[in-house]
């Protein structure tokens, strides 16, 4: 008796390949020890080697560099009294 389920016939088309579905936790475990980029909401990037992480997304990185991103550069309007 087969438990067929038809998971490979779902037609979802995403992911490519016939392997099992990976959870975010599986992905994070698979990249431990590899170079990563962590981007914070503040716009700061940290680039380094992912050393470890826990279920709360606390991470430890090695050989890390911090990159502060410039979001934009703008000029202000000049008035005639500002000079040229």
UniProtKB/TrEMBL annotation:
Q: In what residue span(s) does the Sm domain sit?
A: 23-84
Alphabetical GO biological process terms: mRNA processing; RNA splicing; rRNA processing; tRNA processing
The record's listing under InterPro entries reads:
Lsm6/sSmF, LSM_dom_sf, Sm, Sm_dom_euk/arc
Q: Which domain of life is it from?
A: Eukaryota
Cellular localization per UniProt:
Cytoplasm; Nucleus
MF term (GO), any: RNA binding
Q: Name one GO cellular component term.
A: cytoplasm
Comp. bias (Gly residues): 1-20
Q: Which UniProt keywords apply?
A: Cytoplasm, mRNA processing, mRNA splicing, Nucleus, Ribonucleoprotein, RNA-binding, rRNA processing, Spliceosome, tRNA processing
Principal location: cytoplasm
Where is the region Disordered? Answer: 1-26
Give the UniProt family note. Answer: Belongs to the snRNP Sm proteins family. SmF/LSm6 subfamily.
Q: Which PANTHER family match?
A: SMALL NUCLEAR RIBONUCLEOPROTEIN F SNRNP-F, U6 SNRNA-ASSOCIATED SM-LIKE PROTEIN LSM6
Q: In its UniProt entry, what is this protein called?
A: Sm domain-containing protein
Q: To which species is this protein native? A: Urochloa decumbens
